[in-house]
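Journal club side-thread
Mid-discussion, someone asked how the predicted structure for our own chain would compare to the paper's figures. Pasting it here so we can look after the session.
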Amino acid sequence: MLQPSLPKTLRGIARGCLNIRRFAEVAKTDPRAAVVKIFNTRQRPGWTVPWQDQPVESTSGSGAVIRASINGRVPRHAVLTAAHVIADSRYLQVQRTNDRYSGEKFRAHVAAVCHEIDLALLTLEEDIVLEEMEPLIVGSATELPRVFDKVRVVGYPVGGDACSVTEGVVSRVEVQEYSHSLRFGLALTVDAAINSGNSGGPLVDASTAHVVGVAFQKMVARGVELQGHAVPSPVIQRFLEDVASESSGSSDSTQTIRLRMPSLGCDYQSLEPVALREHLKLDGRRGILVSRLHNAGDTPAALRGGDVLMSFNGFDLDELGFCSLLGRRLHFGAARDLCRVGTTVTMKVWRSQVEQTVQQVLQPARHLVPRGEFDVRPRFFMVGGLVFQPLSNEYLQGWAANDRPSHLQDLFLSGHVTPERDEVVILTQACGFWKLPKDA
């Protein structure tokens, strides 16, 4: 018995529609379809010779297309990446180098950046370029990936032009030092390979393809392998919330929103030694010791030197400063980073053998010697051929590691702001002059 059949043309159309449907389904599950390559033409200032820039150089990184609200406007497609990928940029371009698009490059602008947590958001001059792409979904603001969860790092590392995918598991969730800002913050550790060029690319959950992190660094040391770090989704969501609520103060769409992270403005130490806890007469109470205040801000600090900080905004601290947060035992600095600058936090302290409750408005950190100065020009003052500059980490980095003056290194590591001293100014050069003619 002959089976009825469609004409060849109709069968071809049906097959084509099926392929389009499959293509759309793949675009939603394959994160490569939403990952772009970022080209940064940058020129860093010369911090040891402040009036002279360093040579122009070209670097590249990765980014993920997401939906984000900027300046409170309607959410739009934007590129989420790492701040160090776009730092000191003179010209930014984005390229969609995968099987679905051509290799054309498009001009991009930095819409928002927070160097302290190494995150940035880019927009394109031609919005239609990103609108054609299926955006990735950023993970939860209240959940962290579990250890052993399978994840994939997507991006454009060195060694080729095509989009690369490496797979591994989450091996650790804790506070780590961010090499870009020299600041400690919450991070994911994964054993998936992260190489140069992967920075800014998404760390996606293998089962949902949601963005659970942004790759930003890896540990490099003898005997260390497969320890890459990513900014976790709760920190990303907090960054995006700030971008949505903050305003650049300008109607210019190319003006960058620059965000800061909050600080308690103090140094603290653990109370692990039993003898120290007995000396403070804690009687079973737990917390960490405030050893020194270093913020000379406009608002008075609620904490005092010698206080024992027992609770931060509802999170009870142990002798090492850890608390229960997001289903993990994490350093309380992670809880601080989920707050915004200007937030009033409530803390319980042990002061003069009395338990007290104090409140403090969180302010950005102030360092006696600035670190992480990006996208800014060096300040200097010249008089009589003598060049004076504020001491900064960038200036110290201009010296060979073994040649840096030890007293300046000590100011960088241990110096703190006081009402009497909020900056270190040093004599960096004595410029010579040709002898002027007598009739000059």
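Post-session note: The CA atoms of residues 97 and 103 lie 5 Å apart.
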